[in-house]
Amino acid sequence: MAQRSILIVGGGTAGWLTAAYLAKYLAVAEPGDIAITLLELPEIGIIGVGEGAFPTIRTTLAFLGIDESRFIREAGATFKQGIRFVDWAETPVDGRHSHFFHPFEPPFQAESGSLVPYWLLQDEATRPPFAEAVTIQNRVAEAQRAPKRSHEADFGGPLNYAYHFDARMLADVLAERARELGVRHLSDRLESVEIGTDGAIAAVRTEAQGSLSADLYIDCSGFRAELIGRALGSPFKSVRNTLFTNRALACKLPYERPDAPLESYTIATAHEAGWIWDIGLAGARGIGCVYSSDHIDDARAEAILRDYVGPRIDTVSVRTLPFEPGYRERQWVGNCVAVGLAAGFVEPLESTGVVLIEAAAAMIAELFPHNGPLDAPAKRFNTLMTARFEGIVGFLKLHYCLSRRSEPFWRANADPATIPDRLRDLLDQWRYRPPSRFDFTIDTESFAFFNYQYILYGMGFRTAPGDFPAAGEADRIFARIRSFGERAAHDLPAHRTLIEQINVGARLLAG
User: Fold this and answer.
1) pLDDT tens-digit readout, 206-220
2) 148 an active-site residue?
3) pTM of the full predicted structure?
4) Domain residue extents for the chain
5) 4-77+164-240+326-378, superfamily in CATH?
6) Which residue in the list 80, 148, 252, 397 is annotated as catalytic?
7) pLDDT by residue (tens digit) across 474-493?
8) Which one, of 187, 202, 215, lies nearest residue 33 by Cα?
Protein backbone atom coordinates (compact mmCIF):
# COMPACT_ATOMS: atom_id res chain seq x y z
CA MET A 1 0.00 0.00 0.00
CA ALA A 2 1.36 3.44 -0.92
CA GLN A 3 2.05 5.86 1.90
CA ARG A 4 -0.66 8.46 2.51
CA SER A 5 0.28 11.92 3.65
CA ILE A 6 -1.58 14.54 5.65
CA LEU A 7 -0.74 18.26 5.58
CA ILE A 8 -2.24 20.35 8.37
CA VAL A 9 -2.20 24.05 7.48
CA GLY A 10 -2.15 26.20 10.62
CA GLY A 11 -1.09 25.61 14.21
CA GLY A 12 -2.80 26.84 17.36
CA THR A 13 -5.06 24.60 19.42
CA ALA A 14 -6.90 23.28 16.35
CA GLY A 15 -3.81 22.40 14.33
CA TRP A 16 -1.69 20.92 17.07
CA LEU A 17 -4.48 19.02 18.81
CA THR A 18 -5.53 17.50 15.47
CA ALA A 19 -1.93 16.68 14.60
CA ALA A 20 -1.22 15.02 17.94
CA TYR A 21 -4.50 13.10 17.95
CA LEU A 22 -4.06 11.76 14.42
CA ALA A 23 -0.40 10.93 15.02
CA LYS A 24 -1.28 8.91 18.11
CA TYR A 25 -4.34 7.19 16.62
CA LEU A 26 -2.63 6.38 13.31
CA ALA A 27 0.70 5.44 14.98
CA VAL A 28 2.68 7.84 12.81
CA ALA A 29 5.83 7.43 14.92
CA GLU A 30 5.98 3.76 13.96
CA PRO A 31 7.23 2.77 10.49
CA GLY A 32 4.11 2.63 8.38
CA ASP A 33 1.97 4.07 5.67
CA ILE A 34 1.04 7.53 7.01
CA ALA A 35 3.02 10.76 7.36
CA ILE A 36 1.78 13.99 8.96
CA THR A 37 3.23 17.45 8.41
CA LEU A 38 2.00 20.59 10.15
CA LEU A 39 2.66 23.88 8.39
CA GLU A 40 2.52 26.65 11.00
CA LEU A 41 1.56 30.05 9.63
CA PRO A 42 3.31 32.80 11.62
CA GLU A 43 0.98 35.42 10.14
CA ILE A 44 -1.97 33.84 11.97
CA GLY A 45 -1.81 34.60 15.69
CA ILE A 46 -3.39 32.85 18.67
CA ILE A 47 -5.85 34.84 20.76
CA GLY A 48 -4.63 33.47 24.11
CA VAL A 49 -6.82 35.51 26.47
CA GLY A 50 -7.95 32.57 28.55
CA GLU A 51 -10.13 29.74 27.36
CA GLY A 52 -12.12 26.86 28.78
CA ALA A 53 -12.94 23.33 27.74
CA PHE A 54 -15.34 20.45 28.40
CA PRO A 55 -14.54 17.46 30.65
CA THR A 56 -13.84 15.56 27.41
CA ILE A 57 -10.45 17.30 27.30
CA ARG A 58 -9.27 15.01 30.11
CA THR A 59 -9.89 11.92 27.98
CA THR A 60 -8.13 13.58 25.05
CA LEU A 61 -5.07 14.56 27.07
CA ALA A 62 -4.87 11.09 28.62
CA PHE A 63 -5.12 9.51 25.16
CA LEU A 64 -2.27 11.72 23.95
CA GLY A 65 -0.13 10.66 26.90
CA ILE A 66 0.18 14.14 28.41
CA ASP A 67 0.74 14.18 32.17
CA GLU A 68 -1.94 16.20 33.97
CA SER A 69 0.36 18.10 36.30
CA ARG A 70 2.67 18.96 33.41
CA PHE A 71 -0.30 20.20 31.41
CA ILE A 72 -1.52 22.36 34.31
CA ARG A 73 1.91 23.89 34.81
CA GLU A 74 2.83 24.44 31.16
CA ALA A 75 -0.59 25.63 29.96
CA GLY A 76 -1.17 27.96 32.92
CA ALA A 77 -4.23 25.81 33.60
CA THR A 78 -6.70 25.73 36.46
CA PHE A 79 -9.70 23.54 37.17
CA LYS A 80 -13.15 24.32 35.80
CA GLN A 81 -16.25 22.82 37.42
CA GLY A 82 -18.89 24.67 35.42
CA ILE A 83 -20.23 28.14 34.74
CA ARG A 84 -21.79 30.67 37.10
CA PHE A 85 -24.36 32.77 35.26
CA VAL A 86 -24.97 36.22 36.75
CA ASP A 87 -27.98 38.42 35.84
CA TRP A 88 -29.10 36.31 32.87
CA ALA A 89 -32.66 35.79 34.06
CA GLU A 90 -33.52 39.32 35.17
CA THR A 91 -32.19 42.87 34.71
CA PRO A 92 -30.57 43.95 38.01
CA VAL A 93 -32.67 46.43 39.95
CA ASP A 94 -31.39 48.59 42.81
CA GLY A 95 -28.17 46.57 43.05
CA ARG A 96 -29.99 43.25 43.40
CA HIS A 97 -28.41 40.51 41.33
CA SER A 98 -29.40 36.95 40.53
CA HIS A 99 -27.29 33.96 39.56
CA PHE A 100 -27.39 30.23 38.88
CA PHE A 101 -24.79 27.52 38.37
CA HIS A 102 -24.30 25.08 35.49
CA PRO A 103 -22.10 22.30 36.92
CA PHE A 104 -20.36 19.51 35.04
CA GLU A 105 -21.68 16.85 37.43
CA PRO A 106 -24.95 15.21 36.32
CA PRO A 107 -27.79 15.35 38.86
CA PHE A 108 -28.02 12.59 41.44
CA GLN A 109 -30.68 9.98 40.77
CA ALA A 110 -33.15 8.27 43.07
CA GLU A 111 -33.70 4.52 42.79
CA SER A 112 -37.09 5.31 41.29
CA GLY A 113 -35.57 7.67 38.72
CA SER A 114 -34.96 11.39 38.29
CA LEU A 115 -35.11 13.82 41.21
CA VAL A 116 -36.28 16.64 38.93
CA PRO A 117 -40.05 16.02 39.36
CA TYR A 118 -39.66 16.11 43.14
CA TRP A 119 -37.74 19.39 43.02
CA LEU A 120 -40.51 20.80 40.83
CA LEU A 121 -43.08 19.79 43.47
CA GLN A 122 -41.32 21.84 46.15
CA ASP A 123 -42.37 25.39 47.05
CA GLU A 124 -40.71 27.81 44.61
CA ALA A 125 -40.27 30.39 47.36
CA THR A 126 -38.28 28.13 49.69
CA ARG A 127 -36.66 25.38 47.63
CA PRO A 128 -32.91 25.60 46.96
CA PRO A 129 -31.66 26.45 43.45
CA PHE A 130 -31.80 23.48 41.10
CA ALA A 131 -28.05 22.82 40.82
CA GLU A 132 -27.66 23.11 44.59
CA ALA A 133 -30.51 20.66 45.20
CA VAL A 134 -29.37 17.89 42.83
CA THR A 135 -25.54 17.96 42.97
CA ILE A 136 -22.79 18.59 45.50
CA GLN A 137 -20.67 20.44 42.94
CA ASN A 138 -22.54 23.72 43.42
CA ARG A 139 -21.43 23.96 47.07
CA VAL A 140 -17.88 22.86 46.29
CA ALA A 141 -17.42 25.43 43.54
CA GLU A 142 -19.03 28.27 45.45
CA ALA A 143 -16.65 27.53 48.35
CA GLN A 144 -13.70 27.99 45.91
CA ARG A 145 -12.70 24.38 46.43
CA ALA A 146 -10.99 22.12 43.89
CA PRO A 147 -12.75 19.10 42.37
CA LYS A 148 -10.03 16.69 43.53
CA ARG A 149 -7.10 16.24 45.92
CA SER A 150 -3.38 16.21 45.15
CA HIS A 151 -2.90 12.47 45.75
CA GLU A 152 -5.62 11.41 43.31
CA ALA A 153 -4.77 9.95 39.93
CA ASP A 154 -4.27 12.02 36.80
CA PHE A 155 -7.56 13.08 35.22
CA GLY A 156 -9.54 11.49 38.08
CA GLY A 157 -11.26 12.66 41.24
CA PRO A 158 -14.59 12.71 43.04
CA LEU A 159 -16.11 15.43 40.83
CA ASN A 160 -16.30 15.96 37.09
CA TYR A 161 -14.12 18.80 35.80
CA ALA A 162 -12.43 20.45 32.84
CA TYR A 163 -9.85 23.25 32.74
CA HIS A 164 -9.26 26.89 32.08
CA PHE A 165 -6.00 27.50 30.23
CA ASP A 166 -3.94 29.94 28.18
CA ALA A 167 -4.48 29.01 24.50
CA ARG A 168 -0.95 29.99 23.46
CA MET A 169 0.58 27.85 26.17
CA LEU A 170 -1.75 24.93 25.41
CA ALA A 171 -0.71 25.05 21.75
CA ASP A 172 2.93 24.79 22.84
CA VAL A 173 2.18 21.73 25.00
CA LEU A 174 0.29 20.04 22.16
CA ALA A 175 3.02 20.95 19.64
CA GLU A 176 5.72 19.34 21.72
CA ARG A 177 3.66 16.16 22.11
CA ALA A 178 2.75 16.08 18.41
CA ARG A 179 6.43 16.26 17.42
CA GLU A 180 7.19 13.45 19.89
CA LEU A 181 4.48 11.40 18.18
CA GLY A 182 6.11 11.82 14.77
CA VAL A 183 4.59 15.00 13.31
CA ARG A 184 6.91 16.96 11.02
CA HIS A 185 6.81 20.70 11.78
CA LEU A 186 7.34 23.49 9.27
CA SER A 187 6.85 27.21 9.71
CA ASP A 188 6.37 29.37 6.66
CA ARG A 189 4.20 32.02 5.06
CA LEU A 190 1.39 30.76 2.82
CA GLU A 191 1.42 32.33 -0.62
CA SER A 192 -1.26 30.43 -2.55
CA VAL A 193 -3.30 27.26 -2.82
CA GLU A 194 -3.17 25.36 -6.11
CA ILE A 195 -6.35 23.67 -7.35
CA GLY A 196 -6.05 20.70 -9.71
CA THR A 197 -8.15 19.96 -12.77
CA ASP A 198 -10.36 17.69 -10.62
CA GLY A 199 -11.27 20.61 -8.34
CA ALA A 200 -9.26 19.21 -5.41
CA ILE A 201 -6.24 20.82 -3.78
CA ALA A 202 -3.07 19.92 -5.66
CA ALA A 203 -0.56 21.77 -3.44
CA VAL A 204 -0.02 24.77 -1.21
CA ARG A 205 2.75 27.18 -2.11
CA THR A 206 4.81 28.79 0.63
CA GLU A 207 7.40 31.54 0.71
CA ALA A 208 10.44 29.50 1.73
CA GLN A 209 9.48 25.85 1.34
CA GLY A 210 7.96 26.26 -2.11
CA SER A 211 5.24 23.81 -3.13
CA LEU A 212 3.95 21.33 -0.52
CA SER A 213 1.60 18.53 -1.52
CA ALA A 214 -0.31 15.83 0.38
CA ASP A 215 -3.15 13.37 -0.02
CA LEU A 216 -5.35 14.97 2.66
CA TYR A 217 -5.24 18.64 3.64
CA ILE A 218 -6.58 19.79 6.99
CA ASP A 219 -7.44 23.48 7.20
CA CYS A 220 -6.64 24.88 10.65
CA SER A 221 -6.00 28.41 9.43
CA GLY A 222 -8.55 30.02 11.72
CA PHE A 223 -11.14 32.55 10.58
CA ARG A 224 -9.16 33.05 7.37
CA ALA A 225 -10.13 29.54 6.21
CA GLU A 226 -7.43 29.65 3.55
CA LEU A 227 -8.22 26.22 2.09
CA ILE A 228 -11.87 25.40 2.76
CA GLY A 229 -13.11 28.95 2.24
CA ARG A 230 -10.80 31.01 0.04
CA ALA A 231 -9.53 28.19 -2.19
CA LEU A 232 -12.47 25.78 -2.31
CA GLY A 233 -15.30 28.23 -1.71
CA SER A 234 -17.29 26.08 0.72
CA PRO A 235 -20.22 28.32 1.74
CA PHE A 236 -20.43 29.73 5.25
CA LYS A 237 -23.83 29.51 6.95
CA SER A 238 -24.40 32.44 9.30
CA VAL A 239 -26.58 31.89 12.37
CA ARG A 240 -26.74 35.57 13.27
CA ASN A 241 -30.54 35.47 12.95
CA THR A 242 -30.49 33.17 16.01
CA LEU A 243 -27.35 34.17 17.94
CA PHE A 244 -26.84 37.93 17.80
CA THR A 245 -23.39 38.52 19.33
CA ASN A 246 -20.59 39.16 16.86
CA ARG A 247 -17.82 41.04 18.64
CA ALA A 248 -15.73 40.77 21.79
CA LEU A 249 -13.25 42.93 23.68
CA ALA A 250 -10.71 40.81 25.57
CA CYS A 251 -7.90 41.36 28.06
CA LYS A 252 -5.80 39.57 30.68
CA LEU A 253 -5.70 41.14 34.13
CA PRO A 254 -3.05 40.04 36.64
CA TYR A 255 -4.24 39.33 40.19
CA GLU A 256 -3.71 42.13 42.67
CA ARG A 257 -1.94 39.65 44.96
CA PRO A 258 -0.47 36.19 44.24
CA ASP A 259 -2.59 34.42 46.87
CA ALA A 260 -5.90 35.80 45.60
CA PRO A 261 -8.72 33.19 45.84
CA LEU A 262 -9.16 31.27 42.61
CA GLU A 263 -12.60 30.45 41.26
CA SER A 264 -13.05 27.02 39.68
CA TYR A 265 -15.78 28.10 37.29
CA THR A 266 -16.24 30.54 34.46
CA ILE A 267 -18.20 33.61 35.50
CA ALA A 268 -20.59 34.74 32.76
CA THR A 269 -22.22 38.06 33.64
CA ALA A 270 -24.99 39.35 31.40
CA HIS A 271 -25.08 43.01 30.34
CA GLU A 272 -27.46 45.06 28.23
CA ALA A 273 -26.39 43.60 24.87
CA GLY A 274 -24.45 40.41 25.64
CA TRP A 275 -22.28 39.11 28.45
CA ILE A 276 -18.83 39.21 30.07
CA TRP A 277 -16.60 36.19 30.61
CA ASP A 278 -14.27 36.05 33.61
CA ILE A 279 -11.87 33.11 33.70
CA GLY A 280 -9.41 32.47 36.51
CA LEU A 281 -6.02 31.31 35.19
CA ALA A 282 -3.11 30.61 37.51
CA GLY A 283 -1.46 34.01 37.03
CA ALA A 284 -4.21 36.26 35.70
CA ARG A 285 -7.89 36.57 34.91
CA GLY A 286 -8.98 36.34 31.29
CA ILE A 287 -11.86 38.80 30.84
CA GLY A 288 -13.89 39.62 27.77
CA CYS A 289 -17.02 41.54 26.82
CA VAL A 290 -19.13 39.75 24.17
CA TYR A 291 -21.75 41.90 22.46
CA SER A 292 -23.97 42.52 19.45
CA SER A 293 -22.87 45.43 17.26
CA ASP A 294 -26.51 45.81 16.19
CA HIS A 295 -27.45 46.80 19.73
CA ILE A 296 -24.47 48.74 21.10
CA ASP A 297 -21.38 50.32 19.53
CA ASP A 298 -17.73 49.69 20.40
CA ALA A 299 -17.54 52.69 22.70
CA ARG A 300 -20.45 51.45 24.80
CA ALA A 301 -18.91 47.96 24.95
CA GLU A 302 -15.65 49.49 26.17
CA ALA A 303 -17.56 51.37 28.88
CA ILE A 304 -19.27 48.14 29.99
CA LEU A 305 -15.94 46.33 30.18
CA ARG A 306 -14.37 49.23 32.08
CA ASP A 307 -17.25 49.27 34.54
CA TYR A 308 -16.73 45.55 35.18
CA VAL A 309 -12.92 45.58 35.44
CA GLY A 310 -12.43 48.96 37.07
CA PRO A 311 -9.60 51.47 36.56
CA ARG A 312 -6.96 48.71 36.33
CA ILE A 313 -8.10 48.16 32.76
CA ASP A 314 -5.82 51.10 31.83
CA THR A 315 -2.81 48.94 32.76
CA VAL A 316 -3.53 46.16 30.23
CA SER A 317 -4.08 45.92 26.49
CA VAL A 318 -7.58 45.26 25.18
CA ARG A 319 -8.05 43.37 21.92
CA THR A 320 -11.05 43.65 19.61
CA LEU A 321 -12.21 40.29 18.28
CA PRO A 322 -14.87 40.45 15.56
CA PHE A 323 -16.54 37.22 14.48
CA GLU A 324 -19.49 36.03 12.42
CA PRO A 325 -21.44 33.29 14.21
CA GLY A 326 -21.94 30.32 11.94
CA TYR A 327 -20.35 27.29 10.32
CA ARG A 328 -19.71 25.53 7.02
CA GLU A 329 -22.20 22.78 6.28
CA ARG A 330 -19.56 21.18 4.00
CA GLN A 331 -16.49 21.05 6.21
CA TRP A 332 -15.00 18.15 4.26
CA VAL A 333 -14.73 18.95 0.53
CA GLY A 334 -12.77 16.62 -1.72
CA ASN A 335 -9.33 16.10 -0.18
CA CYS A 336 -9.70 18.95 2.36
CA VAL A 337 -11.33 18.99 5.79
CA ALA A 338 -11.62 22.04 8.05
CA VAL A 339 -11.13 21.91 11.83
CA GLY A 340 -11.54 24.69 14.39
CA LEU A 341 -12.38 28.26 13.43
CA ALA A 342 -11.99 27.47 9.73
CA ALA A 343 -14.97 25.11 10.08
CA GLY A 344 -17.08 27.47 12.15
CA PHE A 345 -17.55 29.38 15.38
CA VAL A 346 -20.77 30.40 17.05
CA GLU A 347 -19.72 32.40 20.12
CA PRO A 348 -17.64 31.95 23.32
CA LEU A 349 -20.61 30.98 25.54
CA GLU A 350 -20.21 27.48 27.09
CA SER A 351 -16.68 27.12 25.63
CA THR A 352 -17.60 24.92 22.67
CA GLY A 353 -14.55 25.70 20.53
CA VAL A 354 -12.22 22.98 21.85
CA VAL A 355 -14.87 20.24 22.06
CA LEU A 356 -15.64 20.80 18.37
CA ILE A 357 -11.93 20.35 17.58
CA GLU A 358 -11.88 17.16 19.66
CA ALA A 359 -14.95 15.80 17.87
CA ALA A 360 -13.57 16.60 14.42
CA ALA A 361 -10.13 15.12 15.16
CA ALA A 362 -11.67 11.90 16.50
CA MET A 363 -13.91 11.53 13.46
CA ILE A 364 -11.08 12.16 10.99
CA ALA A 365 -8.99 9.54 12.81
CA GLU A 366 -11.70 6.86 12.78
CA LEU A 367 -13.01 7.62 9.28
CA PHE A 368 -9.58 8.16 7.75
CA PRO A 369 -9.47 6.67 4.21
CA HIS A 370 -6.38 4.45 4.28
CA ASN A 371 -7.19 3.56 0.68
CA GLY A 372 -9.79 4.48 -1.88
CA PRO A 373 -11.19 8.00 -2.49
CA LEU A 374 -10.06 10.74 -0.08
CA ASP A 375 -13.58 12.14 0.07
CA ALA A 376 -15.24 8.82 0.96
CA PRO A 377 -15.97 9.95 4.57
CA ALA A 378 -16.99 13.49 3.57
CA LYS A 379 -20.76 13.04 3.50
CA ARG A 380 -20.89 11.31 6.88
CA PHE A 381 -18.45 13.75 8.45
CA ASN A 382 -20.41 16.76 7.18
CA THR A 383 -23.72 15.33 8.39
CA LEU A 384 -22.40 14.69 11.89
CA MET A 385 -20.59 18.01 12.25
CA THR A 386 -23.55 20.00 10.93
CA ALA A 387 -25.83 18.27 13.42
CA ARG A 388 -23.36 19.03 16.21
CA PHE A 389 -23.20 22.72 15.28
CA GLU A 390 -26.99 22.91 15.08
CA GLY A 391 -27.29 21.31 18.50
CA ILE A 392 -24.84 23.83 19.98
CA VAL A 393 -26.70 26.76 18.38
CA GLY A 394 -29.93 25.56 19.96
CA PHE A 395 -28.37 25.07 23.39
CA LEU A 396 -26.76 28.50 23.37
CA LYS A 397 -30.02 30.11 22.24
CA LEU A 398 -31.69 28.55 25.28
CA HIS A 399 -29.61 30.83 27.52
CA TYR A 400 -30.89 33.93 25.74
CA CYS A 401 -34.49 33.18 24.80
CA LEU A 402 -35.60 32.38 28.38
CA SER A 403 -34.36 35.70 29.77
CA ARG A 404 -36.83 38.19 31.19
CA ARG A 405 -34.36 41.09 30.91
CA SER A 406 -35.91 44.27 29.54
CA GLU A 407 -33.23 45.59 27.14
CA PRO A 408 -33.84 45.44 23.35
CA PHE A 409 -31.11 42.81 22.81
CA TRP A 410 -32.76 40.43 25.24
CA ARG A 411 -36.31 41.12 24.08
CA ALA A 412 -35.21 40.37 20.49
CA ASN A 413 -33.70 37.08 21.69
CA ALA A 414 -37.04 36.11 23.23
CA ASP A 415 -38.86 36.57 19.91
CA PRO A 416 -40.11 33.08 18.89
CA ALA A 417 -39.15 33.84 15.28
CA THR A 418 -35.45 33.77 16.31
CA ILE A 419 -35.69 30.41 18.10
CA PRO A 420 -34.80 27.29 16.03
CA ASP A 421 -37.82 25.09 15.29
CA ARG A 422 -36.38 22.10 17.14
CA LEU A 423 -35.72 24.10 20.30
CA ARG A 424 -39.13 25.75 20.12
CA ASP A 425 -40.77 22.32 19.90
CA LEU A 426 -38.77 21.01 22.85
CA LEU A 427 -39.63 24.06 24.97
CA ASP A 428 -43.30 23.39 24.31
CA GLN A 429 -42.85 19.80 25.52
CA TRP A 430 -40.76 20.79 28.53
CA ARG A 431 -43.63 22.85 29.90
CA TYR A 432 -45.20 19.51 30.83
CA ARG A 433 -42.15 17.30 31.53
CA PRO A 434 -38.42 17.80 32.18
CA PRO A 435 -35.80 17.32 29.44
CA SER A 436 -35.12 13.62 28.86
CA ARG A 437 -32.26 11.59 27.42
CA PHE A 438 -34.67 10.54 24.68
CA ASP A 439 -34.79 14.14 23.41
CA PHE A 440 -31.27 13.89 21.97
CA THR A 441 -29.12 11.70 19.74
CA ILE A 442 -25.95 11.47 21.80
CA ASP A 443 -23.47 11.01 18.92
CA THR A 444 -24.33 14.43 17.48
CA GLU A 445 -24.72 16.34 20.76
CA SER A 446 -22.17 18.24 22.80
CA PHE A 447 -24.66 18.71 25.65
CA ALA A 448 -26.71 16.11 27.51
CA PHE A 449 -30.31 16.41 28.62
CA PHE A 450 -29.23 17.40 32.15
CA ASN A 451 -27.26 20.36 30.77
CA TYR A 452 -30.57 21.64 29.44
CA GLN A 453 -32.15 21.07 32.86
CA TYR A 454 -29.50 23.21 34.57
CA ILE A 455 -30.13 26.11 32.18
CA LEU A 456 -33.92 25.79 32.10
CA TYR A 457 -34.43 25.71 35.83
CA GLY A 458 -31.59 28.10 36.58
CA MET A 459 -33.37 30.63 34.34
CA GLY A 460 -36.71 30.07 36.10
CA PHE A 461 -38.44 28.00 33.42
CA ARG A 462 -41.63 26.38 34.69
CA THR A 463 -42.49 22.75 34.09
CA ALA A 464 -45.89 21.65 35.37
CA PRO A 465 -45.21 19.15 38.19
CA GLY A 466 -46.78 15.72 37.97
CA ASP A 467 -47.94 13.29 40.64
CA PHE A 468 -44.99 11.12 41.73
CA PRO A 469 -45.18 8.58 44.57
CA ALA A 470 -41.63 8.51 45.98
CA ALA A 471 -41.54 11.96 47.63
CA GLY A 472 -40.26 10.54 50.92
CA GLU A 473 -37.31 8.83 49.25
CA ALA A 474 -36.56 12.00 47.25
CA ASP A 475 -36.56 14.16 50.39
CA ARG A 476 -34.02 11.82 52.03
CA ILE A 477 -31.78 12.01 48.95
CA PHE A 478 -32.02 15.82 48.84
CA ALA A 479 -30.93 15.88 52.50
CA ARG A 480 -28.01 13.55 51.75
CA ILE A 481 -26.89 15.69 48.81
CA ARG A 482 -26.91 18.75 51.06
CA SER A 483 -24.89 16.91 53.73
CA PHE A 484 -22.40 15.47 51.22
CA GLY A 485 -21.98 18.90 49.65
CA GLU A 486 -21.15 20.52 52.98
CA ARG A 487 -18.67 17.75 53.79
CA ALA A 488 -17.00 17.95 50.36
CA ALA A 489 -16.67 21.74 50.64
CA HIS A 490 -14.90 21.19 53.94
CA ASP A 491 -12.68 18.26 52.91
CA LEU A 492 -11.54 19.26 49.43
CA PRO A 493 -8.57 21.67 49.18
CA ALA A 494 -8.87 25.30 48.21
CA HIS A 495 -8.55 25.64 44.45
CA ARG A 496 -5.59 28.03 44.66
CA THR A 497 -3.82 25.69 47.11
CA LEU A 498 -4.14 22.65 44.85
CA ILE A 499 -2.94 24.52 41.76
CA GLU A 500 0.12 25.77 43.67
CA GLN A 501 0.84 22.26 44.98
CA ILE A 502 0.66 20.81 41.46
CA ASN A 503 2.86 23.55 40.01
CA VAL A 504 5.50 23.21 42.74
CA GLY A 505 5.51 19.41 42.43
CA ALA A 506 5.81 19.57 38.65
CA ARG A 507 8.70 22.02 38.86
CA LEU A 508 10.53 19.76 41.33
CA LEU A 509 10.09 16.75 39.04
CA ALA A 510 11.25 18.77 36.04
CA GLY A 511 14.25 20.18 37.84
Assistant:
1) 999 999 999 999 999
2) no
3) 0.95
4) 4-77+164-240+326-378
5) FAD/NAD(P)-binding domain (3.50.50.60)
6) 80
7) 889 999 999 999 999 999 99
8) 215
